[in-house]
Design a protein that fits this description.
heterodimer, A: alpha/beta, UDP N-Acetylglucosamine Acyltransferase, domain 1, four-stranded parallel sheet, 15 strands, B: alpha/beta, 17% strand
Chain lengths: 288, 243
C-alpha cells in the first residue's frame, strides 16, 4: 500500500487495462468443475429416471422412481442445461469475488507491481473472466448486466451496458444510461511498473458513444454525452446535459433540438431551408 | 480479458470474394480434417468409460473431456493449416512490397489463399474460453516472432510479417496490421515492435511501423505508413507525434 498524492502524480499517457497470467488463473478450472458438477448431478437423476421409464432398469441406484410426466421436462432440460451451467458458475464465482473483496477491499490509488493491491486486482479480474465470457456467449442479451450486478457493480435500471469492455470493480452506472458498441470503461490502468486504480462514475441518462475509452477517475454527470471516437483523460469531469468530443475531450457542444439547428442553418444561409430546397429542385429540373 | 463476442479478436482479414468462393472446398476440408482427432478421442472415451460400474466416472470426467476436446481441436487445426501453409509457401514464398490488387497477380492471389488457410485455426483460438495457449501460441506457428511475458490476448495481430519483443503490452482492441489496401494498390510490410514497448487501447499500427525500445504509444492513436518511433519516448495523436 503506497499511496502517492494525486495532485503531485501526473499521468503522461493513457495506456490500457490488462492482466498478466498468474497461478491464480487456474481458478477457471475450479469454476468449470463446479459448474459441470451441478449440471451432471441434476442430469444424472433425470436421465436415470428416463432410462427407468424406458427399460424398467436403472443404471444408477437413486431413491426416486420414474413418473410419466417427466417426459415433459425433456425439452426444458435440453435448453435449461445451458442456463443452469452458466448461472451456477456465475453464482459460484460471485461468492468467490465477494470473499476476495472482504480479504482486500478495492482502494483508489497508485500501487507498485507485486504489492498486495496489485495481486488482488489480478485475482478479482481472473475470477470475473469466465462468468462474463459465459454470459456473453449465452443467447440472452442482458445476461452480462446480471453478472456485473452479482459481482457487486452498482448498475441502475434500464441500462444498456453490453457489447463493450467494462472493469468489474469500482464502477458506478446510473439509471437509463446507454453505452454503445466497442467501448472500454477502465477503472485501472497499467502505468510503467505501477497500476493506477480510480473510481469511474457514470450518472443518470448518460450516453457513451461508440469507440470511446473512459479512463479511471472520470465522472460523467447526469445527462452528459460522450461523442464518437473520443476518450477521456484521468480525473476528467464531464459536465451534465452537454455533448463532449475530442481526443482527449476538449470540445463541449450544446444539445439542440431539430428546430434550433434548422434556425441556425437559416441564419447562415439567409433564407428558410424549404425555399433553398425548392430552388435547388428547380435548378436541377432546368439542367435536365 | 472479457470482450463481447463481436470483438473477440477473430481475424478481420478481408479475403477477396472471387478467391473465397473458389476455395471454399479447401476451407471445409481443413475443418473436417481437424475434427477427425476429436471424433477418435470421443470414441475412445466412450469405449473406456461407458461400462457397468464406470457410469459415474463417465459423468464426473466430462469437464476434463471438454477441456481436452477444445485444445485437441485447436492443436489439430493449427497443425493441418500449417501443413497446407508450408505447401503454399513452397509454391510461392511471401514477399514484402507494393503490389496491384489483381487476382491474376501472384502476390495478391497467394496472400488471399494463405488467409483462407489460416482462418479456421484463428477462429478456434479466438473463441476458446480458457486464457491459456491463445493468440500468442497460435501466431508462433504461423511464423510471427513474439517474446515472453506480455499481454497480447485482447488485441488483433496480423499473422505475417510481424515481430514483437519481450515484455510488450498490447492494449485492448488495438490492431497491428502488416497489410494495407489503398485503392488499386496492396501493401505488405514488416512491423517491428522491440522490447518493453507499451501500446495503449484502441491503437492501430499501419504497415512498416518500427517501434523502438521502451517507447510508449498512448491510447486511441495510430501510426503512419513506415513511421519510426524513437526509443524511450511517449507518442500520441493521429498520426502519432512526440509528446
Amino acid at each position: 500500500m503506497e499511496d502517492i498524492d494525486d495532485s503531485q502524480f501526473k499521468v503522461e499517457y493513457i495506456s490500457t487495462s490488462g492482466v498478466y497470467k498468474t497461478p491464480f488463473t487456474l481458478i477457471i478450472l475450479l469454476q468449470l468443475f463446479v459448474g459441470c458438477l451441478i449440471v451432471v448431478l441434476i442430469n444424472l437423476w433425470f436421465y436415470n429416471d428416463l432410462y427407468y421409464l424406458l427399460t424398467g432398469q436403472r443404471f444408477l441406484s437413486f431413491l426416486f422412481i420414474g413418473q410419466w410426466w417427466e417426459w415433459f421436462l425433456l425439452p426444458l432440460n435440453i435448453y435449461g442445461n445451458l442456463l443452469l451451467f452458466a448461472f451456477s458458475i456465475i453464482l459460484f464465482s460471485s461468492v468467490l469475488f465477494k470473499i476476495l473483496n472482504k480479504l482486500c477491499p478495492p482502494i483508489e490509488g497508485v500501487f507498485e507491481k507485486g504489492s498486495k493491491e496489485w495481486k488482488y486486482t489480478h485475482r478479482r479480474l481472473w475470477t470475473a473472466y469466465f462468468p462474463i465470457w459465459l454470459a456473453r456467449s449465452l443467447p440472452l442479451p442482458w445476461s452480462d448486466i446480471f453478472v456485473y450486478r452479482f459481482l457487486g457493480v452498482p448498475i441502475g435500471k434500464n441500462v444498456v451496458a453490453y457489447e463493450g469492455y467494462i472493469d468489474p470493480e469500482l464502477i458506478e452506472i446510473g439509471n437509463y444510461t446507454m453505452t454503445s458498441l466497442n467501448i472500454c470503461i477502465f477503472s485501472h490502468l497499467i502505468y510503467h511498473d505501477k497500476i493506477i486504480i480510480k473510481k469511474v462514475k457514470i450518472g443518470k441518462a448518460c450516453i457513451v458513444g461508440p469507440q470511446t475509452i473512459i479512463s479511471p477517475g472520470t465522472i460523467l454527470q447526469d445527462g452528459a454525452i460522450l461523442g464518437v471516437n473520443s476518450y477521456t483523460w484521468v480525473n476528467q469531469v464531464l459536465e451534465g446535459d452537454l455533448i463532449h468530443v475530442g481526443t482527449p475531450v476538449k470540445l463541449t457542444l450544446q444539445i439542440q433540438s431539430v428546430e434550433e439547428s434548422q434556425k441556425k442553418a437559416e441564419k447562415i444561409k439567409g433564407g428558410s431551408l424549404r425555399e433553398i430546397d425548392n430552388i435547388n429542385k428547380s435548378k436541377s429540373r432546368g439542367n435536365r | 480479458m472479457f470482450q463481447p463476442a463481436s470483438l473477440k479478436g477473430d481475424s478481420p482479414t478481408p479475403i477477396d470474394e472471387r478467391i473465397r468462393n473458389r476455395y471454399l472446398i479447401l476451407y471445409f476440408f481443413i475443418i473436417i480434417l481437424s475434427s477427425i482427432p476429436c471424433a477418435l478421442f470421443e470414441y475412445i472415451y466412450l469405449g473406456l468409460f461407458w461400462k457397468k460400474g464406470l457410469y459415474l466416472w463417465f459423468f464426473f470426467l466430462i469437464p476434463l473431456n471438454i477441456m481436452i476436446l477444445i485444445y485437441l481441436l485447436q492443436l489439430s487445426a493449427i497443425l493441418i493449416s500449417v501443413l497446407f501453409l508450408t505447401i503454399v509457401k513452397l509454391i510461392y514464398p511471401p514477399k514484402e512490397g507494393i503490389f496491384s490488387r489483381d487476382i491474376k497477380k501472384k502476390d495478391y492471389f497467394y496472400w488471399n489463399l494463405r488467409n483462407i488457410i489460416k482462418k479456421w485455426p484463428l477462429f478456434i483460438s479466438a473463441s476458446n474460453p480458457f486464457p491459456w495457449f491463445k493468440n500468442r501460441f497460435i501466431l508462433r506457428f504461423f511464423g510471427v516472432k513474439i517474446g515472453k511475458n506480455g499481454i497480447h490476448d485482447n488485441s488483433w495481430i496480423s499473422s505475417e510479417f510481424v515481430s514483437i519483443g519481450k515484455n510488450v503490452i498490447i492494449g485492448m482492441n488495438s490492431t497491428i496490421l502488416s497489410f494495407g489496401i489503398e485503392q488499386d494498390k496492396f501493401i505488405l510490410k514488416r512491423i517491428i515492435v522491440e522490447d518493453e514497448v507499451l501500446i495503449g487501447a484502441k491503437c492501430v499500427l499501419l504497415p512498416g511501423t518500427h517501434i523502438k525500445h521502451n517507447t510508449k504509444l498512448s491510447a486511441h492513436s495510430y501510426t503512419d505508413f513506415n513511421q519510426i518511433l524513437e526509443e524511450n519516448s511517449i507518442y500520441m495523436g493521429h498520426p502519432a507525434k512526440l509528446k
